[in-house]
Design goal:
Helix content: over 70%
Largest sheet: none
Strand content: under 5%
Radius of gyration: 14 Å
Structural class: mainly alpha
Length: 92
Amino acid sequence: GASLGALHPQTLAALNDLAVYLEASGRHAEAENLLRRNLCDREALLGPAHGATLASLGNLAGLLRARGRHEEAEPLLRRALNGCEMTLGMYH
């Protein structure tokens, strides 16, 4: 069969799922690396306000927050909020 490629949306979704699994398994550093890669790739492919990109922001922020890295998590959460408000409107 044909390869979807590293930047195909389905590949990026699978990468995100793997990162979430690794986080749940306690492999936080590996999960963080994959979540950062996923965010970068989704931003490049889909744009900063796409729902999948915003989900990636939230996933990375959640990992950072769970690890006590609140100062790193907050700007990501604010970016996700701003992106949702731009995309969906403030009162959606």
